[in-house]
Each structure stands twice: as C-alpha cells, then as structure tokens.
Amino acid sequence: MRSSSSQSLMPLWLLILIVGTIVGISMGRSQSMGLYLQPVTGALGIGREPFALAMALTQLMMGLGAPFSGALIDSFGAGRVVVACVFATIAGLYFMYAATSPSDLVISGMLMGIGVSGTGVTSLVGTIGRLAPPDKRLSAIASIGMAAGIGGFVALPVMHFLIEFVGWQQSLVWLMVITALLIPIAWPIGGKPVRVDGPARDQSVREALAEAFRHPSYWLLTAGFFVCGFHVSFIMVHLPAFTVDQGLPGWVGPVALSVVGIANIVGTFLAGQSGRYIEKRRLLSLIYFARAVLFLGFLFLPMTPVTVITLCGLLGIFWLSTIPPTSGLVATFFGTQWMSMLFGFVFLSHQVGAFAGVWLGGRLFDLTKSYDAMWWLSVALGVISALLHWPIAERPVPRIAAAASATSRA
Q1: Cα separations in angstroms, 144 against 42, 119, 141, 182, 329
Q2: What is the distance, to the nearest Å, from the Cα of residue 267 to the centroid of all Cα atoms in its chain?
Q3: What is the DSSP letter of 322?
Q4: CA–CA separation, 300 vs 394, rounded Å?
Q5: Residues 388 and 329: beta-carbon distance below 8 Å
Q6: CA 222 → CA 199, 342, 385, distances in Å?
Q7: Distance of CA 235 to the CA centre of its chain
Q8: Domain boundaries, the chain
Q9: Distance spanning both ends of the chain, measured CA to CA
Q10: Residue 97, Cα to own-chain centre: how many angstroms?
Q11: What is the radius of gyration, based on Cα positions, of the chain?
C-alpha cells in the first residue's frame, strides 16, 4: 500500500470537500427515507411493518457491505467502489418507484443499503483518516460527519418539497438523477491509497482482522456502536409518523429532523475538537448517557411542535458526534492501513442496531399502536452503551506502540 495516488497530491481541504459531497448526498438521502413511510404504505395499502422492514434491511445491508467496501477502498481506492454503489442505489430507488408489493420494497431497501455501504461515512472515513496528520485526524473525520449532517439538513426539506409538489413516485426519479451526479464527483478519489503509518509493518487482511478480534476494547467499542444505530435509525424513520400520531401538523417531523441535521453539524464539530480536552472513550460515554436522558422527554413532556423540535435539536448535538471518537479509537488502536475495513466491522454492529431500531419500531407500533416501548428501550440502551465505553483502554496495540517508539528513538 505504498503506491502513489492522486489523493496524496490534493490538499486536505479539497479531499474533504470531495468526500464530504459524496457522503452528504448519500447519507442525506438515506437519512430522509422515513418521509416515504406514509405515502408509500398508503399507496400500496399496507401497514407500517413492511416499509419498516425494507428500511431496516437497508440499514442491515449498509452494515454487511461496509467491511467489504472498506477493504476494497483500503486496497484499491474509493473511486470505483463509489461508482458501483451509486448504480446499486439508483436501482434501489427504481424498485421503490415501481413497487406494487412489499417484496418490491424489500428489494429496494437491500439495494439502497448496498449503495450506501460504499458511499457513506463509514467506507470513506479511512480515505480521510489515512491522509490527515495524526493531530488533525479527528477534526478531519469530524468534517465528514458534519457533511452527513449538512446532507440531512438539505435533503429533508428538498425531499419533502418534491413529495408534496411532484408526488412520491416522481420525487424518486429526481433522487435517481441527483444520485447519478456522484459518478463524476468520485473520479478524483480513484487510485490506490498511500500508506502513511510510518515504520509500522504492513499487514494482510487476515492479520489485521485477527489482531482486531483479539482486542477487548475493540469489542466494547463495537458493542456500544450497536446502540448508536438503534437510536439514530429509529428516530430518522419513525419520528415523522410519531409526530402525526401525536396530533401535530405534518411539517413538524421534517422540520424536527432538519433541526437534528443543523445541531449535528455543531455537535460533530465539537466532537472533532474534543480530542485535546477529553479522552474519546469518556466522550462516548457522555454522549450515550445524554441521549438516554433526552429520550425520557418523549415519554414525559407534552408533545407540542416546540417540545419536539427542541428535543430533536438537543439530540442532534449527540447525533453523529459519535463518529469522530469511534473511528478515532479504531485508528488509535490499529493505525490507518485497514481503517476503513476495521471501522466497517464496528459499523456493522451499528447497522444491526439500526435494523433492530427500524424494524422493532414498526413491529411494536403495529402491536401496541404506540411508540412508548421504543422510547423506554432507547433509554435503557443509552445507559448500557455509556457503561460499555467507560472501561475501554485508549492506547495503541503493541505493534503500533513499538513502531511509534522506534520512530521517537530514530
């Protein structure tokens, strides 16, 4: 992994801009698909569970695909992987556009999940992490997380506008066109990545996985990230319907999710700057505990537009702010050679949680006609995740530590 790449010749800000644009468009669309829950289920005459299952499969396929997409990007660069995943996303959007049954929605969800697995934050974080200097790595990764938040902030009102004025089916055609624009944008990040870990020896994929799977703190990090996926995906898919169920106007859900996107930009920026003030593991514990407290608000506070938007604004601060410290810990443990792949396995846990959050939201609502059980479950999982992150050992594995020691002696 020492071959040259055009990426190494680009200034860091330009690389961040390119990757951020891809991530923003891809993640913004993905995070906003909950807007289609009511129009799609209404048009097909089905309950919420089939749509929730399709969106849950999107999350699961994002997770299953992330380690493979990450390994391909770590080995060959991001360009071709992004293009292939763009075509998968377009195919998934088409299946939803032409859907006549729940099985069409399932296919749609799976294809869109494969698409985001190679164009989202997780798969591309290693591209940034490799080339950013260690002292700027956390803030560079945070910039990509901020791009995802900006994408959600822009995508939600745009998609809501398209659904309202051209109909849900024609809005999907527009999304296909917008997604296709990622193909030329991905061209500059083609080519093999450059190895920048200094004297740390090269590893094979098998060696990297064996080292990671023997590391207890990696497993704690992976288990904790399950909860992040559960929280985020449940809110993104089910909040618009929850607000309508509470008798609130239809605009409240989209606006509240847009506020999440705005606040996420602030929260992710602060997380990227936090490395000089607080350990990453401690920050993650605080983030998950804060989420648990805020979810109690959906159970005990009166649901008004102001309440929902305020709670979502506060949640947004703790939204994708988990990405910089989580991915930063992966780089701290193992270096950056296989960072996309190893973070991809952590993200797989996130997406299993996302599957559970989206599907259980629909399942429990259909059984109880209420989201109360999901709010309580979200509170409990937030506390559990806070406890899981606390004992993480925030230091490099012996291989990386030895290489750093050799460098300091040289």
Answers
A1: 36, 12, 5, 16, 16
A2: 15
A3: G
A4: 37
A5: no
A6: 28, 10, 10
A7: 13
A8: 6-196+204-404
A9: 23
A10: 24
A11: 20
Using the Cα atoms of residue 259, residue 225, residue 238 and residue 69 in order, give the sign of their dihedral. Answer: positive
Residue 385 corresponds to which tokens in the numbers above?
Answer: 């995740």
Per-residue pLDDT of the chain (410 residues; tens, 9 = 90+): 443 455 556 788 888 899 999 999 998 898 788 889 889 999 999 888 888 889 888 878 988 888 888 888 877 878 889 999 999 999 999 999 999 999 999 999 999 999 999 998 877 877 787 777 777 777 888 888 788 878 877 888 899 899 999 999 999 999 999 999 999 998 888 766 655 555 555 778 889 999 999 999 999 999 999 999 999 989 988 998 899 999 999 889 988 988 888 898 889 888 888 777 899 999 999 999 999 999 999 999 999 999 999 999 999 999 888 988 998 899 889 987 888 889 889 988 988 898 899 889 988 998 999 999 999 999 999 999 999 999 999 999 888 877 666 555 55
Q: Which tokens hold the place of 26?
A: 């891809």
How far, in Å, CA of 297 to CA of 293, rounded?
7
CB count in 10 Å sphere of residue 367 = 10
- For residue 187, the 8-state DSSP code is G
Structure tokens at 341: 């792949």
* Chain centroid to CA 261: 13
Measure the CA–CA gap between 120 and 23, rounded to whole angstroms: 5
**Where are the strands (E) in 111-263, listed by range?**
none
Report pTM.
0.77
405, with CB counted inside 10 A (0-12, 13-18, 19+), is: exposed
Quick one: CA torsion of 365, 62, 204, 225, rounded to 10 degrees?
-40
CATH of 6-196+204-404 among 3.30.70.1350, 1.20.1250.20, 3.90.580.10, 2.60.120.10: 1.20.1250.20
